[in-house]
Amino acid sequence: MRGPGSLLRGRRWPYVALTGLVSGAVAWWAIPHLGTRTRLTVTYQGNDIGPVLPTLSLDTLVSSASAQVMLLAAAVAFLVQLYSTKYMGADPRYRSYALLIVLFLVAMVAVVGTDNLFVLLIGWEVMGVCSYLLIGHHWERDDAQSGAAKALLVTRAADIGLLLAILVLGQTYGTYSISQILVASGLEQPRNATLIGLLLIVAVVGKSAQVPLQTWLPDAMPGPTPITALIHAATMVAAGVFLLARLLPVYATSEVAMTTLAVVAAVTMLSAALFALVQSDLKRALAWSTVSQLAIMFAAVAVADGTAAIDHLVSHGVFKALLFLGCGVVMHTVGSSALADMGGLRKAIPVTFWTMTIGFLALAGIAPTVGFFSKDGVLEAVHHDGGARGDLLLAVVTLTSVLTAAYATRLWALTFLGTPKERHRTAKALAWPLLVLALAVFALSIGKPLHLGIAALSTGASVVGILFGWLLRKRTFESRVSRILTHELGFDRIFSGLIPALARLKARTVVWVDDTLVDSYPRGSAHSALGAGWLMDRFQSAKAQLYATAIAVGSIALVAYALWVGR
Amino acid sequence: MPLLFPLLVSAALFGIGLYGVLARRNAVLALIGVELMLNAVNLQLVAYDAWLGETKHTGQVLTLYVIALAAAEIGLGLAIVLALFRARGTVDVDDVEKVP
Q1: What is the least distance, in Å, from the CA of B53 to any CA of chain A?
Q2: For chain B, what percentages of helix, strand and coil (3-state, to nearest 5) are there?
Q3: Residue from A235, A230, A215, A225 nearest A429 by CA
Q4: What is the ipTM of this complex?
Q5: Terminal Cα distance for chain B, rounded
Q6: What is d(CA A539, CA A553) in angstroms, rounded to the nearest whole number?
Q7: CB of A439 closer than 8 Å to CB of A346
Q8: Which of A224, A388, A548, B13 could form a disulfide with B40 if both were Cys (CB 3.0 to 4.6 A apart)?
């Protein structure tokens, strides 16, 4: 690309430098907190002052978990920015695109690092807006527009839950400081645990695309692929898991909240894995895979193991970013994201093939990738729980592991194996963000604990899944049963039927109120004016004798009255 | 003569006059009704004048005024009726309200 193109290319490095600066600052901040146990030094002042007004403060609270998530977000954002210089460099709106990535990172860091619930809410909402803008980056396309609008509407609707949860927390504990709330919930039996837990779950179900609000994430796929890697692997959807893990002590005592979370996680992970299995589109399948993996993290939260959840969050962030960036290369090479157009790419893009293979291995949970160890942690957590909830989750997570390995194998085989098809373009995106992430998939697994029995179970599940996936790889899902799955259980149809119906009902009610109640006042005044006019008209009949009669009767009445009074 | 007799006659005259004004459809007869009512008043004025023994006879003076007034009024009224008859060919009061 020469001429205007080279000029554009020359202008891309400032954005990379800016992202590098921000990421570096975040890393510099986060690294000292890694692996340390946070000691909450604040003293809880008690809630004798009654309701408190919303307060904003710039206090920070960085635990080891926050540091991990921050590092993940910073690293993925930087790699995505670097990758985008080639992938999106020629885009006419590269500037806004690149700056939104930085804003996204800053918002995520605000959510993860703040001590103040309202700063958290602001970061949370800024991420929502950024994801809306980035998903709708190619707004010339209808699917990008509708996907962006859907993401915004669904997450915004669920965000009401977060706002309410924050207000209830503030009224319950008399403070909006997270550290104070955590200290307070450690001192005594947490209050309002069920209410707060359920409200938080509502917020997180929207943000992290869990059942029943899961449909926005796959529809967000028209966004640029690097953005998908950033938003839908490492930052936005991860914020939900992080929030639940951080505020775990506040609601962990509530059986209702934890069971709800467990049920949501179980239903989501299974259904999303099934949807991923039958997809005919690589990127959409990866999106469903994200939903399913997020549900596995929530399973860990549901047995009150925040650490396992965050571990899986970080590991998933790494390998899913790798998979999405690789998917970007594949899409660039093939010119579409449909699996039918792929096949035989092993020779065409060897680096992508090998790195994505590592990513798929991590997704399937094969040792020694980080995906294996973090899933091991989650399985151990649900096994360790021992209760009915833990047992249910253990079974569902294991089943999901089988399905995950199956769809990973199927996607891998359909993309890279088989006979090559005609190519239109060659890959231009940078290869080495992929290499860095592939390295991280192994590097992060160093020193992770291993639970032998669980490891055997999970490896067995993965192997079964891989065999299953290998057998399924040629199948297209056309039968009646699988069509239910390819239509994703009709959630979209339910929403697109239900929400307009509700809106129509509301509109009809409003019209009825307006027509019947509100309009009765103006209409009544009009009618009374008409009636008065009619009455007046009766007296103005232009019949002289009638007037005279009225005068005579009136006079007689007056006289009679005067006589009666003067008696 | 007791006051009652002229008052009764007066009341009868006024009643007949009022009936004429309110109920007759012929404009001339309605005017006659007006005259009857005026004269009922005149009769009362004279009767009270005599009964009260007024030295200045204000009642009789007022009666003369009313007679003069009635003459003027009937002149005007009959002129209107005549004009009406010429314009419409009828002197029915119910038809007057209709715009030709």
Answers
A1: 26
A2: 80, 0, 15
A3: A225
A4: 0.78
A5: 54
A6: 14
A7: no
A8: B13
Q: Does residue B27 contact residue B97 with C-beta atoms inside 8 Å? A: no
Is the separation of the CB atoms in A241 and A208 below 8 Å? yes
**In this structure, what token pair is assigned to residue A347?**
């020779």
Q: How many residues does chain A have?
A: 567
Distance separating alpha carbons of residues A295 and A293, to the nearest angstrom: 5
pLDDT digits (tens, 9 = 90+) for A11-55: 778 888 888 898 898 888 888 888 766 666 666 766 655 567 777
- Residue A540 with chain B: CB contacts under 8 Å: none
Beta-carbon separation of A545 and B96 below 8 A: no
- Report the C-alpha gap between A66 and A310 in whole angstroms: 9
How far is residue A307's CA from residue A299's CA, in Å, rounded to a whole number?
A: 12
Taking one residue from A and the other from B, the number of pairs with CB-CB distance under 8 angstroms is 18
| A270-297 pLDDT, tens digit each | 989 988 888 888 888 899 999 999 999 9
Whole-number Cα distances in Å, A189 to A193, A249, A250, A260: 9, 10, 9, 20
First-to-last alpha carbon distance for chain A, in angstroms, is: 117
With CB atoms and an 8 Å threshold, state whether A545 touches B23.
yes
Residue with tokens 């098809």, as numbered in its chain: A421
Q: Which residue of A has its CA nearest to B26?
A: A545
What percent of chain A has pLDDT above 70? Answer: 91
A456 touches B at CB < 8 Å: no
Residues A358/A445, Cβ–Cβ less than 8 Å: no
Q: Answer yes or no: are the C-beta atoms of A372 and A451 closer than 8 Å.
A: no
Cross-strand partners of B92: B26
The phi, psi pair for A527, rounded to 5°, reads -65, -40
DSSP string, A526-540: HHHHHHHHHHHHHH-
Cβ contact, residue pair B23, A542, below 8 Å: no
**In the prediction, which pLDDT does B45 show?**
92
Q: What is the mean pLDDT of chain A?
A: 84
Q: Give the residue carrying structure tokens 């080639």.
A: A86
Contact call for residues A336 and A415 (beta carbons, < 8 A): no
pLDDT higher than threshold 80 for residue A463: yes
- Side-chain half-sphere of A205: how many Cα atoms within 13 Å? 23
Residues B74-87, mean pLDDT to the nearest whole number: 91
Q: Is A555 on the interface with B (CB under 8 A)?
A: no
Q: Does A56 touch chain B (CB under 8 A)?
A: no
To which residue do tokens 């790889």 refer?
A473
Chain A's closest residue to B34, CA to CA, is A548
State how far the Cα of A492 lies from the Cα of A486, in Å rounded to an integer.
Answer: 12
Nearest to A243 by CA among A379, A114, A102, A130: A114
